Inverse folding.
């Protein structure tokens, strides 16, 4: 397995697997869907954004893709995903979870078009595919707190895009992102993952805005307050926001004794084993 040299092209998922794989070979890659809250120009409210990497070589040269690359032999899957996030943003993930393994034989926009039966325009010069090589991608998703977004890495070949307005991406990365957003919408209903998009202290209005950005709809403030109170997931810090004209809102913090979300069967098994060993 070849590990790409460090640089911006290292971040373009599956950038060199087709070049280094022999006929019929299968390469394992790791990609990361990195989500954060940002505001569109002129917008009053935040929405979900994610960083993409411009591919510097064929296939799909010049198109945008999820950050990632072949799995290095000295890193675990989770370590490789976290490393990808740090190279793309210069930050540590607040939340990191394995999303899914994508292993269609034909992982191209055209194959997705055939499966979905819809329209997905693809530039003609970017539709070539080497059928002799095949890549299976283990995809992780991660969140970055809103307070950290301004510190993300700036590079000409790394750009943040709103999740609801993406260009046609390389490989099957549009479908991967769609699935990540689908899973996030369902997870936010029964977990505390929304807190991972915020800083250490936040107002109820800020927390509600995270839920609204993820769910894509406005929520009734009074009902939201009741539901959050019932969840017992946040703690009143006893402080209020300073410098506001009206009555300053209260500041809360997340109850760190509670996990953002379960890490799947293996994560639950390891947590239970760790607790048993220390009791």
């Amino acid at each position: 397995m070849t590990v790409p040299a460090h640089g911006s092209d290292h971040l373009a998922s599956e950038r060199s697997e087709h070049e280094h794989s022999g006929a019929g070979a299968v390469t394992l890659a790791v990609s990361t869907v990195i989500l954060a809250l940002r505001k569109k120009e002129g917008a009053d409210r935040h929405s979900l954004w994610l960083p993409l990497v411009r591919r510097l070589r064929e296939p799909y040269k010049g198109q945008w893709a999820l950050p990632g690359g072949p799995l290095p032999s000295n890193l675990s899957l989770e370590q490789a995903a976290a490393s990808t996030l740090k190279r793309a943003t210069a930050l540590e993930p607040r939340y990191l979870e394995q999303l899914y393994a994508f292993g269609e034989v034909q992982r191209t926009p055209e194959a997705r078009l055939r499966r979905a039966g819809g329209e997905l325009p693809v530039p003609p010069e970017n539709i070539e595919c080497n059928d002799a090589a095949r890549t299976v991608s283990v995809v992780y998703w991660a969140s970055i707190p809103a307070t950290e977004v301004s510190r993300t890495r700036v590079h000409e070949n790394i750009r943040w895009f709103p999740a609801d307005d993406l260009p046609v991406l390389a490989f099957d990365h549009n479908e991967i992102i769609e699935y990540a957003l689908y899973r996030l919408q369902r997870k936010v209903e029964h977990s505390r993952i929304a807190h991972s998009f915020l800083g250490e202290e936040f107002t109820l209005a800020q927390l509600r805005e995270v839920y609204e950005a993820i769910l894509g709809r406005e929520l009734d403030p009074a009902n939201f307050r009741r539901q959050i109170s019932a969840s017992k997931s946040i703690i009143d810090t006893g402080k209020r926001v300073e410098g506001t004209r009206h009555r300053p809102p209260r500041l809360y913090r997340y109850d760190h004794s509670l996990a953002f979300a379960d890490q799947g069967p293996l994560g639950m098994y390891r947590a239970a084993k760790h607790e048993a060993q220390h009791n």
In short: Residues 173-190 form the longest helix (18 residues). Confidence is low (pLDDT under 50) at residues 1-8, 15-22, 121-132.
